[in-house]
């Protein structure tokens, strides 16, 4: 299975961009990951990201802060029949996000626990 890792990148530090993604990749080693934070020479990052979403089975969106790009990726993924998983600590999560995802977890650890308990790590 292939997982696309969506999350804020604009105006974020390298640590904010990569730390959670590396944690997920480390703990779910049997998956192939599409990580938009890895730079490529592709002409358009939007086209590249849409292509990676198209090739993914699951989209995990870490919504630790507002991000237009991440919101667009969630809605695009939902309407392209991807399993959309959102990680968000916010109590008042946007109804747009709630309506366009399949699962919501407050922490990365809860998400990983869900994946392990459902044998998605095999």
Outline the fold blueprint.
Layout: E1 2-6, H1 14-27, E2 32-34, H2 45-55, E3 58-62, H3 68-79, E4 83-87, H4 95-99, E5 103-105, H5 108-117
Parallel strand pairs: 1-2, 1-3, 3-4, 4-5
Report strand order across the widest sheet. Answer: 2-1-3-4-5
CATH architecture: 3-Layer(aba) Sandwich
Number of strands: 5
Secondary-structure element order, as H and E?
EHEHEHEHEH
Structural class: alpha/beta
Reported by name, the CATH topology is Rossmann fold
Distance between the termini: 10 Å
User: Helix segment count?
Assistant: 5
Characterize the overall form: globular
Question: Average pLDDT value?
Answer: 92
What portion of the residues fall into strands of 2 or more residues?
15-25%
Question: Cα-atom Rg, whole angstroms?
Answer: 13 Å
Stretches with pLDDT under 50, minimum 5 residues = none
Helix content: 40-55%
CATH class: Alpha Beta
State the domain count: 1
Note the main sheet. 5 strands, parallel
Characterise this structure.
The chain contains five helices and five strands, in the order E-H-E-H-E-H-E-H-E-H. The chain has 122 residues and is α/β, with parallel strands linked by helices. It has a single domain, classed as Rossmann fold, CATH 3.40.50. The protein has a five-stranded parallel β-sheet, with helices on both faces. It is globular and about 35 Å long.
Short key terms for the protein model shown above:
122 residues; Rossmann fold; five-stranded parallel beta sheet; globular
């Amino acid at each position: 299975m292939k997982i696309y890792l969506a999350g804020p990148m604009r105006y974020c530090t390298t640590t904010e961009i990569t730390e959670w993604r590396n944690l997920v990749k480390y703990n779910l080693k049997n998956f192939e990951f599409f990580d938009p934070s890895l730079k490529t020479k592709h002409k358009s990052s939007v086209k590249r990201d849409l292509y990676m979403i198209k090739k993914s089975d699951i989209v995990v969106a870490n919504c630790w802060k507002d991000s237009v790009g991440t919101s667009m990726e969630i809605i695009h993924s939902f309407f392209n029949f991807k399993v959309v998983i959102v990680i968000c600590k916010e109590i008042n999560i946007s109804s747009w996000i709630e309506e366009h995802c399949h699962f919501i977890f407050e922490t990365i650890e809860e998400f990983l626990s869900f994946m392990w308990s459902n044998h998605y790590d095999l």
